[in-house]
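Researcher: We're reviewing a set of sequences before deciding which ones to prioritize for further study. For each one, I'd like a predicted 3D structure that I can look through quickly. This is Alpha/beta hydrolase fold-3 domain-containing protein. If possible, include the structure in C-alpha cell form so it fits the rest of the review sheet.
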Amino acid sequence: MDLLPHPDDMSRFSDFTILTTIYKTISDHSITTDVLIPKKLTEASSPVTSPCPIILRYHGGGFIGGASLYPGFFAPWHMELAARHSAVIVSPNYRLAPESTIDDLLEDIEDHWAWVHKELAPFLKKELGARVDVDTDRILTAGDSAGGYLSIMTGLSHAKEIRAVTAAYPCIDLADAHFMERPTAPVFGLALPQSIVDDHFEKIRNGKAPALISNDRYLERGLLMFANLQHGGFPKMFPLEKEQLFPFERLRTGQKFPRGGVFVWQGADDSVVPAKGNVALKELVREVDPELEFNLAVQPGEHGFDAMTKIDEEWMASGLRNLVKAWLQ
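Model: Here's the predicted structure for Alpha/beta hydrolase fold-3 domain-containing protein, in C-alpha cell form for your review sheet.
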C-alpha cells in the first residue's frame, strides 16, 4: 500500500488524452467512464486513422474501493499496449459494495457494455471530430483483482463479441474458504479490526454515509476493502445460491470464453487472491473447453506484483502474443 503512487499523480497517463463522460444515471447519481486515447491520434496534426481497437478495462478494489483512473491500480502495461497498437482504452466506474450489491455492479457493467456499442463512437466524434473512431468488433478485456473478475465475467457474457480476455490476479474461486470463511492470514499482513466494517455499516444504517458510491478515486475505502475480506464479508456479497455470480458455475453449465483465448497472471505469494484459485480455473477450462487457448502465468510476488511490468517481458509477451493477434485481426 505504501508503494502506491499518489492518487493525483497522473504521470502514467501523460501520453494519452483522457475524456470523461456519464454513461448512466441512477436517481441523481451519475456514473462515469473514462476514455483514454493515445495523443498521437488526437493532436491537431494527426491524420485520420482506421477505427481503433478497444481495451475494455475494469478497475480493481475488492468491489468496495478504487476508481476508473486510480493510478495505483492502473498498471502502465495497459498504456504501453494501447500506444503500440493505436488502441483506445475505456475504463468505467461502477457502483461499489457494500452500499450496492454485486448484481447492481454487474448491471452497471452491462449498461456500460451497451454504452460502448451505441454511444462511444458518437461521443468521440463530438469531442474529437473525425480523427478518432473505434472498432467495437475488436475488443480485448482487462482488469485487476475485482476488475479481473469483471473481465472474466464480461468475457463469458459476450463470448462471441469479444476477441480475447486478460485478467490480473482475478477473484475467481469465490466459493473457496478464503473468501467464504476467512483468510488464514491477514492480507498484506494487515491485522485490521472488525470495527472498521461494523462502523461503516452503522453509518449506512444511520444515513451518515452516501447511499450510493461509484468512485473512490483517493482509495479512502482501502482499509474497509481489506477488513471486509479479513472478517468474512464476502458471503454477504456473493451468496452461494446465486450461481450466476460465480464464474466456475457458469463454465460448468456450458458457457464459454471468447475463441481468441484467455491470459491470466497471478502472484505466487498473493495474500488477497490465492494462486490456487486461478490454477483451479485453468484446470476447469481444460476440462470443459479443451480447445481454448488458456494461459496462466504464476510469477513471484504479492497482489499487484505487475505494477511496473512491461509488455515485452518474456512471461507477459508470451501470454499476450496470440491474444493480441486475435484481438487485432
